[in-house]
Amino acid sequence: MTPPSPGQNATILAVELTDFSAIELRDAIRSGETSAADAARACLARIEEVDSGENGVNAFIQTFPERALEQAMKIDERVAKEGAETVGPLAGVPVAIKDNMCLAHGRTTCGSRMLENYESPFTATAVQRLIDAGAIVLGKTNLDEFAMGSSTEHSYFGPTRNPWDRSRVPGGSSGGSAAAVAARMAPLALGSDTGGSIRQPAGLTGVVGCKPTYGRVSRWGLVAFASSLDQIGPFGRTVSDVALALDVICGFDELDSTSVNTSAPACAQAVDAPINKLRVGVPKQARNEKNHPAVAEALERAIGVYQSLGAQIVDIDLPTIEYGIAAYYIIAPAEASSNLARFDGVRYGRRAEIGAHEDLISLYSRSRAEGFGEEVQRRIMLGTFALSSGYYDAYYTTALRARRLVKEDFDRVFATEGGGPGVDVVLSPSTPTPAFRIGEKADDPLAMYLEDYYTVTANLAGIAGVSVPAGLASMDDGVRAPVGVQLFSPPFSEERLMRAANMLESGLDWNDRRPPL
Ligand code: GLN
Fold first, then answer.
1. Is the shortest distance between the CB of 201 and ligand 1 below 6 Å?
2. How many whole angstroms from 128 Cα to the centroid of ligand 1?
3. What is the mean pLDDT of the chain?
4. pTM greater than 0.85 (yes/no)
5. Considering its fold, how many domains does the chain have in total?
6. Residue 263 within any structural domain of the chain
7. Suppose 170 and one of 70, 72, 179, 251 were both cysteines; which one would form an S-S bond, judging by CB atoms 3.0 to 4.6 Å apart?
8. Contact 339, 224 (CB under 8 A)
């Protein structure tokens, strides 16, 4: 056999490197088996190959090729000069960042015309923690405008396509981050989850995505959508990678007043240890007759895996799941209407041209009408209406009451005292259906909102949740589309959540499956 020419060798290497998990890459970089520069080059080449063009995935709004390579070479230099122990736990690992997180480099657009040219003067805490751990930021990923949506179709920069079938959506709003990880453009990405925007796209693209407990990850530098619900979290192709990323981004930050001052979790070292006599609660509401057959199947498959691992399956009742969507779609738009008031074309955001005879109100309304897309405008109107005098109690206060009931429902099933079933985690589908077609729900906001049926409750209750790939659905057009299942755990129990997710992953034998792209 003739040895491969240098060119061939590079291709082989590149293909392999994009398949590496974050932990495998980090270890290979530390041991000198590969370099951070090669890892960055491989991911950038993959982005070039699959992300642009008419039928490209369109996961990225911007990439930073030169800067990424520069940073990667610095990591390589440090490994060579100072030794592998001196670099962080994500040394040389390429990452993708949802474009609603500030980075003091490039633009932070939130997928909006309003912020098309906005350059942040600072970097979000969670992103900075990744960088401090040695991660290499490849670029900023596409999202539904201001993170409002479940399909990444509501982006000023065009829709992101699902790597499994490019006529379908990747879910949203963090669809770009999910698609980037699924399509091997990056092993790790950050998203934000206000009502499901990490877990739902993770489910629809066949990757792992975690929304940590509210208060676990600093929101400083995350452009606010609904502040009492927003939380940043990681996407990866394995539970172990997500566990490691959690350890890095979690922790107290005095710049976020809702950041909780408790020690960061140690998920990475715990993740491989199965939980003895794990009690898995399955709400009867999870076995909804409206679930797609493949979703129902995936749920039963997950239950089977847990049973085979000696876990105990406990039937539980979470009646307030039914009220989640109604409460969320009052509370989230109400907070959004207030948070987005700052984009007035004067202090923040795109400024419209107005005539000499027009007044300040025209400037505001013209700027906002031009800068915001239809869905964002709908949310602002919904929220403003719900908060207006005369309607406040009927809508907003009622929604807050429902939110409290959702929280109490979860408290009850996690508790042992008071006759509670004392489950360790709750298992449900991540979404009612696998990925739908681009355009399919575009004219039906309510159908789009129902995508979040299984995810919003975690945000309302402030608890942690993770979506784990649990199978492939055969769609009626012959396409194979991923299906995810979701686990919830009580506040600040991310270690437990990751261990339980890892048990599921080990029993489902999913990791080697890749989109046909
Ligand atoms: N899909 C939900 C919405 O449109 C959730 C979005 C999110 O979590 N950012 O509001």
1. no
2. 24
3. 95
4. yes
5. 1
6. yes
7. 179
8. yes
What CATH number does residue 35 fall under?
3.90.1300.10
**Tokens 């847990």 label which residue?**
306
φ/ψ of residue 445, rounded to 5: -55, -35
Candidate from 5-9, 98-102, 119-123, 254-258 with smallest mean pLDDT:
5-9
Return d(Cα 28, Cα 44) in angstroms, integer. Answer: 18
d(CA 483, CA 466): 13
Residue 160 lies in a domain: yes
**Residue 395 contacts by C-beta under 8 Å, 6 or more apart in sequence?**
330, 385, 386
Q: How far apart are alpha carbons 438 and 444 in whole angstroms?
A: 13
Question: Is 25 within the bounds of a domain?
Answer: yes
Catalytic residue (one of 112, 174, 197, 467): 197
290 is catalytic: no
Ligand 1 atom index nearest CA of 452: 1
Q: Please give the average per-residue pLDDT across 401-417, as a whole number.
A: 96
Position 76 in a domain: yes
Judged by phi (left if over 0) then psi (alpha if -120 to 50, else beta), residue 387 lies in alpha
Ligand 1 centre to CA of 24 (Å) is 32
- Express each pLDDT in 96-140 by its tens digit: 999 999 999 999 999 999 999 999 999 999 999 999 999 999 999
Question: In this structure, what are the phi and psi dihedrals at residue 241, rounded to the nearest 5 degrees?
Answer: -65, -40
- Give one word for 423, left, alpha or beta, with left for phi > 0 and alpha for psi -120 to 50: beta
- Ligand 1 site, residue 148, Cβ cutoff 6 A: yes
